[in-house]
Amino acid sequence: MHKMIFVNLPVADLDASKAFFGAIGYRFDERFSDENAAALVLGETQVAMLLRRDFYQTFVPGREVIDATTTSGAILCLDADSREVVDEIVGKALAAGATFGNTEDHGFMYGSSFYDLDGHGWEIMWMDPAAVEAGPENYAAAQNGH
């Protein structure tokens, strides 16, 4: 159905956010970035648009822009190639100033999360390819002999 996703996130300090995500290892698409926005490339067809709060407000007239440091509106979940990559990405985020969220380990699925400088929740997760193929519940049942 859809070929791309653009997630729009309000940020207090665009330069600080760019430095934060750059320190984790992400890049920006300068074709879609300016003094109001930075196109954070998450994957080949996934982009998070980091928008200055006042610019973000222009997209939602009449609505209040949340303060993600106190209110959760969404959790952005991204896949990783392995458990080690999950820990690497979250470790880099913490070193760059993120706040730790939590870690969940279900054996076939492993994830860890952090909150960025503006309080947006990011979860990095890995799932065993066999569990993806079979479906998590079916895979878990087969592992438990059911």
The CATH architecture of the largest domain can be named as Roll
Radius of gyration using CA atoms only: 17 Å
Stretches where pLDDT is under 50 for at least 5 consecutive residues are none
Helical segment tally?
Answer: 5
Q: What is the number of domains?
A: 2
In what order do the strands lie side by side in the largest sheet?
1-4-3-2
Number of strands: 8
Organism: Gordonia hydrophobica
Protein name: Glyoxalase
Domain VOC: 3-127
Q: Overview of this structure, please?
A:
The chain is of the alpha/beta class. The protein folds into two domains: 1-60, Roll (2,3-Dihydroxybiphenyl 1,2-Dioxygenase, domain 1), CATH 3.10.180; 72-146, 2,3-Dihydroxybiphenyl 1,2-Dioxygenase, domain 1 (Roll), CATH 3.10.180.10. The chain is 29% helix and 34% strand. It contains five helices and eight strands; from the N terminus they run E-H-E-E-E-H-E-H-E-E-E-H-H. The protein has helices spanning 14-24, 53-57, 83-95, 129-134, 136-143; strands at 5-11, 27-28, 37-43, 46-52, 75-79, 99-105, 109-115, 121-127. Strands 1-4-3-2 form a four-stranded mixed β-sheet. A four-stranded mixed β-sheet has the order 5-8-7-6. Strand 6 and strand 7 (109-115) form a beta hairpin. The protein is elongated. The relative contact order is 0.16. The model has no long low-confidence stretch (mean pLDDT 93).
How would you summarize this macromolecular structure in one to three sentences?
This protein has helices spanning 14-24, 53-57, 83-95, 129-134, 136-143, and strands at 5-11, 27-28, 37-43, 46-52, 75-79, 99-105, 109-115, 121-127. It has 146 residues and is of the alpha/beta class.
